[in-house]
Amino acid sequence: RRVLLLGEGNFSFAASLCGAAGTHVVATCYESEEEVRGRGRAAESIRRLRERGAEVVFSVDCAKLKEYFLPEKREFDCIYFNFPHCGRKAGVVKNRELLAHFFHSCAEVLTEEGEVHVALCNGQGGTPADRPRREWHNSWQIVAVAAGAGFILSDVRPFKAETIHGYKCTGYRSQDKSFCVEGALNHIFTRSTPLTSFKPMICEIQLESQKFSFQVPQVLVDKINRGFLELNSNHPVRTVKEKLTAEFSQAFPLQNIDCCLSLLHQGHLSGVSHSNIFWIIQSPEETPSIEEMSNGLANTALFSHIDFCRDTDKNGWVNVQEGCHISQRYCLRPSLLPCAQAIIERGAFLRGTLHVLSGPVFRKCLITPYSMPVFHEMVFLCAVNRGTENSYIQMLVNNIKTSIHSLHQTVSGFKLSISLQEATSFETTELNYFAAFESQLSKIQYFICMERDASGSCEKGSCVGIIRAAHYELISSELVVVFASLNLDLLAMLICGISDWRMLWTSDTRFLCQFPRGELRLFKSFSLYPPSYVHDVSFWVPDGEQFDEVAFHTIARQVSGEMVISIQLIDSFQQLETGRKSLCYRLTFQSCDKALSCQEVAEMQLRFRKEIKQHLGVTLR
Question: Where's the FDX-ACB domain (predicted)?
Answer without folding.
Answer: 528-621
